[in-house]
Amino acid sequence: MSKNVVVVIQEDPRKTHRPVEALRIALGLVAGSHRTTVVLLGESVRLLHEDVDDITDVEILEKYLPSIEQLEIPFVLQSKIDRAPLRKKFHIEYSSDEGIRNLIASADRTLVF
After folding, report:
1. pLDDT-based confidence at 2, cuts 50/70/90?
2. For 80-83, which contacts have Cβ atoms below 8 Å and span 24 or more sequence positions?
3. How far apart (Å, rounded) are the C-alpha atoms in residues 76 and 30?
4. Are 33 and 2 in contact, with CB atoms under 8 Å apart?
5. Domain boundaries, the chain
6. CATH number of this structure's domain 4-95
7. Which helix (H) or strand (E) holds 65?
8. pLDDT tens, position by position, 40-85
9. Helix, coil or strand: residue 78
10. pLDDT tens digits, 11-31
11. 33 contacts 53 by C-beta, under 8 angstroms
12. Angle between the 18-31 and 58-70 helix axes, to the nearest 10 degrees?
């Protein structure tokens, strides 16, 4: 049975490998039958920046980004972030903090990194 899964990434990808690992997990969930949405909070939005050279495990990130783009995994970002450095090729939605809370509350499953 298909589940509505939200993967919340809030850690800084310049300081830990966990955000890249969370994206890998989200990719695996999408490859199955689950409806998966990725929420990027705070510094984790750097995963979608044009310049990712300072990210921990950048080689792994670059390996998975084409698949994430092709599968059109939806990303939800806080509406207040600076959009200028973001790559334009991903499916990105912007939401208020309240909208993000509602999205997480409506999910069948939530993974937080």
Report:
1. confident
2. 81/45
3. 15
4. yes
5. 4-95
6. 3.40.1260.10
7. helix 58-70
8. 999 999 999 999 899 999 999 999 999 999 999 999 999 999 888 9
9. strand
10. 999 999 999 999 999 999 987
11. no
12. 30
For the chain, what's the residue count?
113
State the amino acid at position 102 in one-letter form. N
Contact between 77 and 46 (Cβ < 8 Å) = no
Pair of tokens at residue 11: 């850690």
Token readout for 46 is 């750097």
Residue whose structure tokens are 């490859």: 31
The DSSP secondary structure of 13-52, one letter per residue, reads TTT-SHHHHHHHHHHHHHHTT-EEEEEE-GGGGGGGBS--
Cα gap 73→100, rounded to integer Å: 16
Kindly state the tokens that stand for 10: 């809030």
